[in-house]
Specification:
This protein is mainly β. The chain has one helix and 14 strands. It has one helix at about 5-25, and strands at about 30-35, 45-50, 55-60, 65-70, 75-80, 90-95, 100-110, 115-125, 135-140, 145-155, 160-165, 170-175, 185-190, 195-200. Strands 3-2-5-6 form a four-stranded antiparallel sheet, with no helix packed on it. A hairpin with a 2-residue loop joins strand 2 and strand 3. The radius of gyration is 28 Å and the shape is elongated.
C-alpha cells in the first residue's frame, strides 16, 4: 500500500531548507592559521569580539587552523590565547555576508612572564668563561629515568639559556667539552622564574 505525503508538508520542508540556505548566505566567517614560537599550535582559543563583548569562540586544530562561522556582517576583533604564550589581538576586521575573512601571518611568541628560564655559564679551571661548549638538557622523571630533551652550545661569553614550562620538574644540565670528561648538575624547577647554574670543566692542555 502506497503512502502519500501531503503536498503542504513537502512545501514546508523545501521552504525551511531555503530559509537555512538564505541564512547561511546572510552571514560570514573568519578563518586563519596560527603558528607558535614553542610547543604545538593546537588548542589556541580564538575569541571573536565586538568591542569587549564576546560573540563567538573557536579553537585551533593540531595544525593551528581555525574557522569561526555564522557571524553577522560587521566589524570584529579577535583575541588568541594559549597558556605559556603571549596574547594575540587583531582589531577592526570587517566580515561581509556570504564571505569568510582569511587571516594570515598569525604567530604567538612565548610569554616570558609565564615560563621558567635556566641560565647558565661554563668556566674552565682558571675561572675563565668557555665558549662553544656543548650543553645538554635532560629531564629526570619520577622513576629516575633521564631523558634528553634539548641541547645548546655556549655563546662567546660561555653562557647558555633554556626556556621551559613552569611545571615542577627536575632537570640535569651536562657540559660536554671535547677531549675532557662531561660535568653535570641537577636543578629543580617549581614555577615561573630564572634559575641560574654554573658548570666548571677541566680542559685538557695541549
Amino acid at each position: 500500500m502506497k503512502k502519500y505525503v501531503p503536498l503542504t508538508f513537502v512545501l514546508l520542508i523545501l521552504f525551511s531548507a531555503g530559509s537555512v540556505f538564505a541564512q547561511d548566505r546572510s552571514t560570514g566567517g573568519i578563518k586563519g592559521k596560527v603558528a607558535v614560537e614553542t610547543g604545538t599550535p593546537g588548542g589556541v582559543s580564538v575569541i571573536v569580539r565586538q568591542g569587549e563583548r564576546e560573540v563567538a569562540r573557536g579553537v585551533t586544530n593540531k595544525n593551528g587552523e581555525f574557522v569561526v562561522s555564522r557571524l553577522a556582517p560587521g566589524r570584529y576583533g579577535v583575541t588568541l590565547r594559549k597558556p605559556g604564550l603571549s596574547v594575540g589581538t587583531i582589531e577592526d576586521l570587517e566580515v561581509k555576508a556570504g564571505k569568510t575573512r582569511s587571516l594570515d601571518r598569525l604567530r604567538l611568541s612565548i610569554d616570558e612572564g609565564s615560563i621558567a628560564f635556566i641560565r647558565g655559564s661554563v668556566f674552565n679551571q682558571d675561572d675563565r668563561s668557555v665558549p662553544n661548549i656543548r650543553i645538554e638538557l635532560a629531564k629526570i622523571d619520577q622513576d629516575g629515568a633521564v631523558r634528553k630533551i634539548d641541547g645548546r652550545v655556549t655563546n662567546e661569553i660561555g653562557a647558555f639559556v633554556f626556556r621551559l614550562t613552569p611545571d615542577a620538574a627536575k632537570y640535569r644540565i651536562t657540559a660536554k667539552p671535547n677531549g675532557s670528561d662531561p660535568v653535570s648538575k641537577d636543578i629543580e624547577i617549581d614555577g615561573a622564574a630564572v634559575y641560574r647554574i654554573a658548570l666548571s670543566i677541566k680542559l685538557s692542555v695541549k
